Amino acid sequence: MRYLTDRKRAVGKGASGTGTEHHWAMQVSAVGLALLMPVWLYVFGSALGGTQAEVVATFSRPFPAILTALLLVAGMKHFASGAQMMIEDYAQGTARKVAVILVTCLAWVVAATGLFALARMAL
Length: 123
Fold this sequence. Notes:
Number of domains: 1
CATH class: Mainly Alpha
CATH architecture: Up-down Bundle
Radius of gyration: 20 Å
Shape: elongated
Structural class: mainly alpha
Distance between the termini: 69 Å
């Protein structure tokens, strides 16, 4: 005879089974963004107010281009995860599924558009 206590059945499950991993992923991306953002603001601030040729010249160098791409991808991934968490907390049923799909698509579209514009400047 096998006897499982309530605690033994619940260990490692959590509310949805993946809440801890989602929380840690959000924490890691937040720290990464906190480290990238000041450096990017300095790079962006130095290009701000320049002519179009000066801005293109700034972002066609490898360091500003790679930094901007990293910030864009990490920021949109963080946005999509955070918005999904908020939607899952407050929406229900089909509206939840549609909203999560729309937010994820929006994040991917913004990231793709930004990377395309960056590639056009860098090349």
